[in-house]
Design goal:
With about 350 residues, the protein is α/β, with parallel strands linked by helices. Helix content is about 45%, strand content about 20%. It is built from 14 helices and 11 strands. The strands form 3 sheets. A 7-stranded mixed sheet has the order 1-2-9-6-5-3-4. It is globular. The N and C termini lie far apart (about 50 Å).
Length: about 350
Amino acid sequence: MIEVKINSQEITYPINIESEAVADFRERILSYIGKKNYLVIISQKVEKIYGKIFGFDKSHKFILKDGEKEKNFKNYQKILERALEMKLKRSDVIIAIGGGVVGDLAGFAASTYMRGIDFIQVPTTLLACVDSSVGGKTAIDTSFGKNLVGTFYQPKAVLINPKILKTLDDRQFKTGLGEVVKYSFIEKSCLLEEEVNLTNFLSEKSKEILNRDEKTLAKLIEICIKLKKSVVEKDEKEAGLRRILNFGHTYGHAIEKITNYKKFTHGEAIVEGMKFAFNLALKKNLIDKSYKFLAEDVIKKYNFCKIPEYNMKKMSEIMKTDKKVQSDKIVFILPTDYSKVDAFEINSDELI
C-alpha cells in the first residue's frame, strides 16, 4: 500500500492507494467507520458496476445521477434531508464514492450538516483521485457559474483503488489525464522538495498509462498527490500559492459554462485552457517557442479531443465572473519556464 499523509490546519489524514478486489476494498472503507452510522453518496455509474459487490444496504445509500448538472442545491438539500431522516449524529460519517461531482457535493453536505460531520472520500475516477479528492475543497454549482458556493473541509481519509479505474470509459479516463498533464506543467512551482520529473514520466510511460497498468497508475496518482499535497499544505485556503493549481482553469471553466457543461468534460476543457495559456504566454514573451512545442508534444501523446474556438468577447464576459477575477482584470496562471507558472492579471480588452 502507498500512503501519503496530508497535514491540514485542522487534521492530518491519510491518502491510501492500493489495488485490491472490490469486495476487499469495501472492508477497507468500513474499517474507517467502525460502529458509527453512515450515509454513502454513490455515483449512479459506480452503483451499476459495483453496487452488488460493495453490498451497502439501500437504507445507507443515496444514489446520485451522473453529470456536472447534478452538483446543485436541489441534490444538496436531498442529501441533508436523507441524513436527517437517518438521524445521523455529528459523530457519524458521510462517504463519497464516485467522481468529483459526488465528492464535491457530498463534501459540501458533510461540511454543513450539524456544522460538520466526518467525511470519507473514495474517488473512482482518475480526475477525482489526483485532484478533487485532495485538499479539502467542496462546492456546488449555480446558474451563475461553477463552484461559486462551497467550503474548505478536509476528509478523515481518502481511499483509492486503481483497479476500479479499469472500468472507466475512455473519455472519463482521458479527462483525468487532463489534470495529470497540468501537474507536469506546474511541478517546479509546487515547491515539492523531491524531484518527481512528471513530464518525463508522462512521456516515457504513455503506453502503460493509456493501457491502465495498475502499478503505473498507482505511481502516477502518488506523484500527483505529492505535488498537490506540497501546495495545499503551504496554502490550504487559496491565499496565494494554491492558485497555481488553476493552470488552464480560467479559460477551461469558461468553455464548460458557454457549453452548459454538456459538450465537453472538465479535463477536456482544462487541456484547451492550458493550450490557451501557452499561446497567451508566448504572445507576452513569458516563454519561448521551444517550450510551447515541448508542451504540445506531451499533450499530443494522450490524443485529447479538439475543441473549437469560441467568441472571445463572450468568453471574456464569462471569465469575469470567475472567483479569481480582480477588479476588471482576469487572473490567468501562465507558464514562465519549464514546469513553472505564475499568476498574471490580464485586461479583458487584451484578449479580445
